[in-house]
Amino acid sequence: MRSPLRPIGEAFWSVRWPLAALALLLAFNAAFTPGFFALEVRDGRLFGVLVDILNHGSRVAIVALGMTLVIATGGVDLSVGAVVAISGAVAATLVAQHGAPWPLAMGAALAVSLIAGVWNGVLVTVMRLQPIVATLILMVAGRGVAQLITDGLIITFESPPLAYLGNGSLLGLPVPVAMLAGAFVAFGLVSRRTTLGLFIESIGDNPPAARLAGVPDRLVVLLVYAVCGLCAGAAGLIDCSYIKAADANNAGQLLELDAILAVVLGGTSLAGGRFLLFGSVIGAMIMQTLTKTLYMQNVSADIAPAPKAIAVILVCLLQSPVVRERVRRMRGGGGA
Amino acid sequence: MSRMHRRLALGLLTAASALTLLSGCSKQDGSTPNSSEKPKADGAKEPSAPKSQVRVGFSQIGAESDWRKANTESIQAEAKKRGIDLQFVDAQQKQENQIKALRSFIVQDVDVIAFSPVVETGWEPVLKEIKDAGIPVVLTDRAVDVSDPDLFVTFIGADFVEEDAGRGSGWRRRPGGNAKIAELQGTPGSAPAIDRKKGFEEIIAGYPGLQIIKSQTGEFTRAKGREVMESFLKSPEGKDITALFSHNDDMALGAIQAIEEAGLKPGVDIKIVSIDGVHAAFEAMVAGKLNCTVECNPLLGPQLFDAVEAIVAGKPVEKRIVTKEGVFTQETAAEDIKTRQY
Predict the structure, then answer these.
(1) What is the dihedral of CA B208, B210, B214, B219, to 10 degrees?
(2) A250 CB near a chain B CB, below 8 Å?
């Protein structure tokens, strides 16, 4: 019988390069950023830079999980940022302006996000639009919808349960971390313990072959977009909860690119097929660690994108088979 | 310590005034009729009765921002309302154009020359020419650096340079007169972010006690403002931060949450000054969490022509006319919030 730990070992091995990059970043900070690893317990929760990274990274990682599945089917979802804005707008407006109880507000926000995801899925599967075009529609229109919901204002709310998502803690860690853990386990179980993961990979690898082999491709793709919308909706709840307000204009701005980058950094190919959920989580954490490093190192805001870009390029090169092959050959040549 | 944020506010005002950056200012247009009602009542018509129409030459810097546009509109509308013959010349941000305009005003022999100087220095020769021609000069919004203060009659503008020169030295000696400031910048490369940063730094430079120890972009949003403030507070210098200057209210509102999360009292442990004067900022001030928000008032027209008419009528005019700026502090926030329209 297979050891139950083996898949976990495999998961780590498959993301060794992103993990190495993250380790390198953390090592840099250990050496050059005082206070980076400082942790203390305050009011029963951990408090420190690493906790912040986990907290903010989790929000992106949750979106990146959904994005990973979409990318695995050979698609992409550009609308997640807009869905984040819509989700936050729905929840905040319901709570602040209509006095709705928080479960209703959260449920409605998630439902709307799910509908947004299904809409994307229908455009891709039924209307046969290219994913980039199909989701671009909602990316552009969605923010307008969110603005319409909030009337162009920043809607502030006072609702402890809703504020708990972005500010509370569970077992000493911020709630988003727990949400990410939950989502990750659910995604992992469904994609590795059922045939769904195989279906997704086969659709991304070779759609006609998958269809001929009897994979219900349309249903699977529709489901994947719906789930991606749901993930974005959850991130939207965290986002508005965090600032106790819905900022339709700025919430989730450029989040789609962060999520895609997290997926890519995690080692999932944009061409579709094989996907690495754990890698996407690591990718999101790499990005957040980078951002935090630049803040802590007092890197001027004007030039901050440059070191970020360099780090991202390095991580991508690290994973490129061509580069690795060259490096291996060069080392071999030197030894001979 | 209240001096502290007052001082920061003044710094901001200088930044605001000198660099004309507050795009939000034009929103105040609605208040024009109110503020100009008064001068009419107290006998402003007197001079125009015996004399023919008053002629004023005004050289504006340009139309580089919404703030400046609102400023121009206020001046033009007020002149029209009072039946003043206004010669308005736009200098397109060039001093040479302004000097040319001023000389043409001498030739036209206007009654009063007013202008917003594009830079501080280099005005002495042309101001002497104007003085020799016997034409009174009114400066608006920005000051000039001249050795002879008689070269102009009055300076109408925000409360900064002169007041600070007088009390800055005293203030610096006060205990608690030092501040380690964290700055939340706007979106990198955006005009307001550049101007607000530059203006603030220029002011800070004159006060050794004020020191910016942290500065990062919060991209004008609440979420980023909070996230960046979290990082500031957890950095090694974090515990030294005693003041926060935010390029807009939203970032300050986000930062307030980060400060609370870190177990500090926003507005007390860390003094907070921001720009814009949005409604939520007033709420935060009422709650004691924000110390001051600055909204720069571009509507100088009524005050300018009050001064012009007084000069023409031969009445004494204050050397320094302080504009009704929107520096809103905690102390008055509860009252101010009632009058805010947005």
Answers:
(1) -130
(2) yes
CB contact under 8 A, B263 and A239: no
The rounded distance, in Å, linking the Cα atoms of A183 and A168 is 18
What is the secondary structure of A224-254 as a DSSP string? HHHHHHHHHHHHHHHHHHHHTEE-TTTTTTT
Q: Residue for token digits 């976990």? A: A8
Q: Domain limits at B250?
A: 168-295
**DSSP per residue, B35-57:** HHHHHHHTTTTGGGTTS---EEE
- The count of other CB atoms within 10 Å of the CB of residue B89 is 17
Measured between CA atoms, how close is B197 to chain A, in angstroms? Answer: 12
Nearest CA in chain B to A293: B231
Does residue B184 form part of some domain? Answer: yes
Reported as a single tens digit per residue, the pLDDT across A44-60 is: 788 888 999 999 999 99
**Total domain count for chain B?**
2
B153, B173: one domain: no
Q: Is the ipTM of this complex over 0.85?
A: no
Query: A279 to each of A65, A294, A334, how far by Cα in Å?
Result: 9, 22, 32
Instruction: List helix spans (H) across chain B.
Output: 2-19, 32-41, 66-81, 95-108, 124-132, 161-173, 191-205, 222-234, 249-261, 279-286, 301-312, 330-339
Tally of CA atoms within 13 A in the half-sphere of B276 that contains its CB: 21
B205 three-class SS: helix
**Regarding beta strands B112-115 and A169-170, do their DSSP bridges make them parallel or antiparallel, or are they unpaired?**
unpaired
Give the nearest chain B residue to A253 (CA atoms): B221
User: What φ, ψ does residue A98 adopt, rounded to 5°?
Assistant: -115, 5
Residues of A in contact with B227 (CB under 8 A): 52, 56
In a domain, B241, yes or no: yes
Q: What is the CATH number of the domain that holds A234?
A: 1.10.3470
CATH code of residue B144: 3.40.50.2300
3-state secondary structure of A61: helix
Asked if A258 is an interface residue toward chain B (Cβ–Cβ < 8 A), one would say no
- Per-residue confidence (pLDDT) for residue B186, from 0 to 100: 85
Digits of tens for pLDDT over chain A (336 positions)? Answer: 556 667 778 778 888 888 988 999 999 999 988 888 888 888 778 888 899 999 999 999 999 999 999 999 999 999 999 999 999 999 999 999 888 899 999 999 999 999 999 999 999 999 999 999 999 999 999 988 998 998 878 888 888 888 898 888 888 899 999 999 999 999 999 988 889 999 999 999 888 999 899 889 899 999 999 999 999 999 999 999 999 999 888 888 889 999 999 999 898 888 888 899 999 999 999 999 998 998 888 888 778 788 888 888 887 887 777 887 888 888 775 444
Q: How far is B34 from chain A (nearest CA, A)?
A: 28
Are A267 and A281 in contact by the 8 Å Cβ rule? The answer is no
Tokens of B81: 């309302």
